[in-house]
Amino acid sequence: MLLGWQPVRGGETGLAVQIEDEFARRITDGVWRAGTRLPSLRHMAQHGGISRFTVIEAYERLSARGLVEAQHGAGYFVRGGARGVPPVAEPASAAVPDQLDISWLVQRMLDSAKPSDLPTALGLLPHTWLDPDLVARAVRKVSRTAGDVLLHYGHPQGVAGLRQALEVALAAQGVTADAQTNLVTTAGVTHGIDLVLRLLVRPGDTVLVEDPGWFLIFGRLAAYGVRIVGVPRGPDGPDIAALDAMAALHTPRLFLINSAVHNPTGSTLGIGAAYDVLKLAEKHDFMILEDDTYADFHPGQPIRLAALDRLNRVILLGGYAKVLAAGLRVGYLAARPDLVARLVELKLLNGLTTPGLGELVVQQMLTDGHYSRHVGRVRARVDAARTECVQQLGRLGLYAPTPPIAGMFVWVDCGLDSEKVTRIAASMGLVLAPGTLFSPTQAPSRMLRFTVSAIDHPRLWPMLEDVLQRARH
To answer: Which CATH number belongs to the domain containing residue 63 in this structure?
Structure first.
């Protein structure tokens, strides 16, 4: 198939680029037609006397240009309708700012939300792991049956059918939430956070967060002018002694917590810690915002503060971006009736009502039974990838102090200053998520957060190995 051609060592052009250029020429000239299988990684490496990593890099460069596609377990194949696309220039090191902050990471994550990029830091699963056809079918069905519902603003509390579906779904998870008095829909999780902050805190108030925790929370809190105090997070939940001491010292208004499938560690709250957190909330008179974003990745039924507390001091926050589609922007808040009434008022003042189309689509999938089956498939794939990702990172000397039991992230110790590692990676076009940004104080950290879908990208690993070698010297 190679007809005697092989890359030339010592030339002006690197080996991977030589393979890329030669194979791109064959594809665009029609020598290799759609569906043609490229030489296997092993065969190409043996034929050219080069490493498999070099071949992987060449094939991934061809994939990024839209010329070939990887089929799991079968190899690389020429794409149908492939056309020559110029190689994308490597990002310049000048793009790395002097200060790596939350805004930088969020912008780079969103800039990298393309199939050809390496999802090391992105907080979403690739669309190929989800089910766009499932969403599309629900959209089509809603469009045929919604009538003129979509022509109006809708109910301020959210689509009634969705709230009823949420009542049923939450009841199955041990959370009693009445559709009429305990639930309000939001335009995603971040909108829900904003509503709760507008309701409960004022500039100068103290809010407790987990350390490490979701970095976007820190940015939102800073924008409200509140004092942010971190509570160390362990394998079973927050450090109870530290939470007690900090609550006594700072008299917080609110505590934000990931009970199930914590971001970034993947741990889940234990039953003892859950009771202790609720006792301290009562003792020190603070509210709890329980972020349930990743709970669908947990096997079985995790411990939820909202179930134990019966929505007295706990406001439960959830959404569907992680397992369905980020573009739907559908979330919800479950709280006691007096808080829901005030949240609805704030929602009206903040942006009237939430878009009905997305809510109807989620309602459709919750009520027709497709959602639970879909979640099961996604969870199985994430679980397998997480195990493989932990092993692959371990081969490079990165280890998870507490291996995650669930979720789409792996939190690992790289043994180095993670900001230094991130800077080197960024200069090479690789976006990493350094541990320093997951701390409210942005303290130096050796931790990095990886998204498990990185396992689908073979060219990541030689790049990461190169980054780590450079950081060690």
So the answer is: 1.10.10.10
Contacts of 377 (CB under 8 A, 6+ apart): 131
- The secondary structure element, H or E, covering residue 71 is strand 68-71
pLDDT digit string (tens) for 80-120?
Answer: 765 544 444 444 434 555 556 666 666 666 655 444 445 57
Report residue 69 as tokens.
């596609």
Cβ atoms of residues 87 and 20 within 8 Å: yes
pLDDT tens for each residue of 38-50:
888 888 888 777 8
Q: Among 368, 389, 423, where does a domain finish?
A: 368
Give dist(CA 396, CA 56) in Å, integer: 17
State the first-to-last Cα distance of the chain, in angstroms, to the nearest integer. Answer: 42
For residues 285 and 408, membership in a common domain is answered with: no
String of DSSP letters for 86-143: PPPPPPPGGGS-SS--HHHHHHHHHHT-STTS--SS-SS--GGGS-HHHHHHHHHHHH
Whole-model pTM: value is 0.76
Residue 315 lies in a domain: yes
Half-sphere exposure of 30 (CA within 13 A, CB side): 0
Say if residue 229 is in the same domain as residue 101.
Answer: no
Q: Output the six-digit token pair for 129.
A: 């792991």
Decide if 354 contacts 187 (C-beta within 8 A): yes
